[in-house]
Amino acid sequence: MRPTHPGHLAGIVVVVALLTWAVVRNVYSDLLLLPWTAIPTVLLLAVGEGYTAWVTKARIRRKPGTKPVEPLAVARLVALAKASAYAGAAFAGVFAGFGFHTAQLLSKETPRAEFFVAMGSFVSCLVLIVAALLLEQACRIPKDPEDQERG
Fold it and tell me: How far is CA 27 from CA 18, 47, 92, 148, in A?
């Protein structure tokens, strides 16, 4: 499995944002209000992945007081990290596209509130992407000092 490339994630955010903006522009009046609950939910996911990255890195490096981690568990954590990074990028694009549309309507009260919810959700998705990339990085096997001297 190859490491997640941040450029691919940025491309997903941009493409999904443009598609969302094009759709929301045409059907905005028919949509329900954005839920503010996405912000704390995604932030809690990011905190959980960040903490898991910290613990996993210590366990892989066999720091004192930690027990070794099972290889299958690490593979599952990498899969979680990759899925979270790509899902976070897709949802960040959705919220960015929604925010781009409502930014044009800031003089009205409802679109202004939705703009702030969309931008808060966008930022929380970015935090989730960073946490997912940290988790993926933490799951890498450290190189042996002997291998570094030879190579």
Answer: 15, 34, 20, 57
Distance, CA of 147 to CA of 151 (rounded, Å): 6
- The single residue listed with the structure tokens 């997640």 is 4
Sign of CA dihedral 72, 74, 78, 80: positive
H and E: helices and strands count for the chain = 5, 0
CA distance 64 to 104: 55
Exposed / middle / buried, residue 46 (Cβ in 10 Å: 0-12, 13-18, 19+): buried
Q: How far apart, in Å, are the Cα atoms of 105 and each of 101, 102, 114? A: 7, 5, 10
Q: Is the dihedral of CA 54, 56, 57, 63 positive or negative?
A: positive
- Other C-beta atoms closer than 10 Å to the C-beta of 38 total 19
Tokens of 135: 């988790």
What is the structure's pLDDT at 68? 87
130 token code pair: 């960073």
Q: Is residue 151 scored above 50 in pLDDT?
A: no
Give the Cα-Cα-Cα angle 49, 51, 53 (nearest 5 degrees): 70
The pLDDT of residue 5 is 92
Q: Could you give the CA distance from residue 124 to residue 132 in angstroms, rounded to a whole number?
A: 12
